[in-house]
Amino acid sequence: MIDFHNHILPDVDDGPKLLEESVDMLRYASKQGITDVVNTVHFQHPKMDNKNVDYQYLKNKVQLLQKKINDEKIDIKIHLSAEVFYLPNLLDVSKNPLTIIGNKYMLIEFKSNIYPTGYEDEFYNLQLSGITPIVAHPERYRFIQKDINIIEDWLSRGYVVQIDAGSIIGQFGDLIKNVSFRMINNGYIHLIGSDSHNSKKRNFCLFDAYRILEERKSKKFVEYLKNNSWNILNGNEVISLNEIKKKDSFSYLKKKIINFCKFRH
């Protein structure tokens, strides 16, 4: 199981400050069945002023943490990437290996309270260069809470949509939880990630979120989300719910035709 969106490197962004807390978080993740974590360091966010986001520096931090958890017999592989704060420079920053996941995806977050202008052109330029935008936790944006139909336009443009596991279990309150389930029920999402930041209030929570989704939706829906996490990490195409529904409808029709032909004979 992959946790696609988290902040676990010590003393890098607004994640854990100490190595020991990072290890505790990853130990907790392992107990949930997580085998891979894609650490998404905040990139060009205002909160990152005077923070070191040099790729080699962060790679060394990953190697140190990986060695520590290996010594602790915690069976998790750490992958290094970023959560890119939206600015009209996405094509430029895409040249930084930190910002790209699986050689073809970029995780992008917006300001929570301001509708971004001009992002469509920026995203389109990314797509022309072979990079697919992933919109991080839109359920937490006020403009989505006011008009969830914006996501339909995103899907038509080929964006990938990720919601936080914490939103599903109610970490951010009832409003965000309700918006999350409206998105889920409308078929608006492709994957989830814990967006974990610390060992107290925002730890890894994929297991609980998947359990709730299995109860309220289906096991097949959970497998769909898990498969898309693997697809992104491996640089494969993300599958949409509409594609699955079309395949299921075709399979159903095919079975009906076969059964009809058998009956005729």
Could you please say which CATH topology applies here? Answer: TIM Barrel
- The shape is globular
| CATH architecture term | Alpha-Beta Barrel
CATH superfamily: Metal-dependent hydrolases
Q: Oligomeric state of the chains?
A: single chain
Taking the sheet with the most strands, its summary is: 7 strands, parallel
Overall number of structural domains: 1
Overall average pLDDT: 91
Main β-sheet, spatial strand arrangement: 1-2-3-4-5-6-7
List its traits.
265 residues; alpha/beta; TIM Barrel; seven-stranded parallel β-sheet; 46% helix; globular
Give an overview in words.
Mean pLDDT is 91; it is low at 246-265. The chain has helices at 19-31, 55-71, 90-93, 119-128, 142-146, 150-156, 165-169, 174-185, 206-216, 219-233, 241-264, and strands spanning 2-6, 36-43, 77-85, 105-109, 132-136, 160-164, 191-193. It contains eleven helices and seven strands. Helix 1 (19-31) links the parallel strand 1 and strand 2 (36-43). The chain has 265 residues and is an alpha/beta fold. It has one domain: Alpha-Beta Barrel (TIM Barrel), CATH 3.20.20. The termini are far apart.
Short description:
With 265 residues, the chain is an alpha/beta fold. It has a single domain (2-239), classed as TIM Barrel (Alpha-Beta Barrel).
